[in-house]
Automatic annotation (TrEMBL):
Gene: hrcA
InterPro entries, per the entry: GAF-like_dom_sf, HrcA, HrcA_C, WH-like_DNA-bd_sf, WH_DNA-bd_sf, WHTH_transcript_rep_HrcA_IDD
Gene3D superfamilies, A to Z: 3.30.450.40, Heat-inducible transcription repressor hrca homolog, domain 3 (3.30.390.60), Winged helix-like DNA-binding domain superfamily/Winged helix DNA-binding domain (1.10.10.10)
Function (record text): Negative regulator of class I heat shock genes (grpE-dnaK-dnaJ and groELS operons). Prevents heat-shock induction of these operons.
GO MF annotation list: DNA binding
Domain Heat-inducible transcription repressor HrcA C-terminal: 111-323
Biological processes per GO annotation: negative regulation of DNA-templated transcription
PANTHER family reported in the protein's UniProt record: HEAT-INDUCIBLE TRANSCRIPTION REPRESSOR HRCA (PTHR34824)
Signal peptide (UniProt feature, chain positions): none
Family: Belongs to the HrcA family.
Keywords from the UniProt entry: Coiled coil, Repressor, Stress response, Transcription, Transcription regulation
Recorded coiled-coil stretches: 197-224
Protein name (database record): Heat-inducible transcription repressor HrcA
Domain of life: Bacteria
Amino acid sequence: MFEAFELSERYRKVLAIVVEDYIRHAEPVGSRTVSKRLKPPLSPATIRNIMADLEELGFLTQPHVSAGRIPTEEGFRYYVENLLEAEPLPESTKERLEEAFESEEIEDLSELLKIASRLLAQVTGFPAVVSGPRLGNERLLKIDFVPLGRGLVLVVAVTEAGLVVNRLLRVPSHVSPKALERLAEYLNYRLPRLTLEQAREELLKEIEAERKFLENLFEELEEEKPPAEPIVEGLSKLLELPEFKDVEKLKEILRAFEEKNIFLKIIERCLGGQGVQILIGAETGLGSPRNISAVVSPYFRAKSPLGGLAVIGPIRMDYSKVVPVVDYTAQLLSHLLDKLTPRT
């Protein structure tokens, strides 16, 4: 976003100090605080001029005339893209994450995702959201048809990750239970290792007589209605943050968390990318509150994105610490999904 705009080294150092001090203390930062940390030192007058210039450029703002300055969304964005140095994840934290996954009796995908969400909230100190896999990205393992009468069939699909999806489908009157049984046998012979899109292309080439039925079948399986609710952990962490001491601001963020689909949309926007992505303020699309950021990463099975996980926190969250935790948790989750034996 700011590739074409380059600050001088002095301006970059002052901006970094203001952002990092605000992350730590959640209070406006004055020139005296900057002068204590700046190496090599500059005169107070020079620092005040630099901070005034950064404010004019839109990177800092002054909440009150007599107060210091705080970073704007643009200031945080410049910091994240140009100045942020993510800290290496401590070995103790890696071991904590690995041991937590290994100590649980993980029998299916939902348990694994709950563990990931809980760990992210515990380690980062912010609420965490983990979305379930999207069926369209998953490889199918098995499919069954259960005739219910009156032209209705229950479709039961099982994916390699152990996800079980049920859909009601209306079938033409000429499709008999025996035909459905034969079709299930054929599909189970052809489906393994194919995604929905691959299966659609292969099967529609070969089975023209059942074309309409198959189109309806795969459209129903792909349609995400309603989407699986994301797993949210750590909402109580908000009570410990100074941003939400104000009751009205706390109500705003809690209302946002009640609309869980909002966070699904945030995660889905980032599924096409590789690695961790950071959405700051208005970039999250939340509208209100504006002082919220999201650190998001997809997780994978067999190199295909299944879902995503996110840490949601104040715009001043310590990105250098949160980014490596989200990244490593996504890697662990992807590794475990590759090993997870599907239940059929």
